[in-house]
Write the structure tokens for this entry.
Amino acid sequence: MVALFGGMPGVDSLAKLHYSTYSKLCTYSKTAVRREQLLSTERAAFFHSSRAHLQVWQWKALSTDVANLCEWGWNISNNILTPVLTDESQGPDDLLKVIRCKGKMTTKNCC
């Protein structure tokens, strides 16, 4: 995943690339940084890769049998599958306390 995002495998990490991308966007962008502009976090990439691996395995085996979908990056609630996006915090608590939403300081989740 590091190589896909332009990093050096064994030297860089997704966390380092995520941070450097965010820093560059904050420094040079004249508009607010949008989530879709950022790279995946390590945990988000892990869950995405797990779901993709499961899908390929099912296609190759022509099977839908899996012991536990929750082990492959899915949540099951009321018989509805939803992808696990991450299991990490959205950011450090100090940073989350000063997030701006539409120009106003807030401690609420505004996204």
Observations:
- The longest strand covers residues 74-77.
- Helices lie at 14-28, 42-61, 93-96.
- The mean pLDDT is 78.
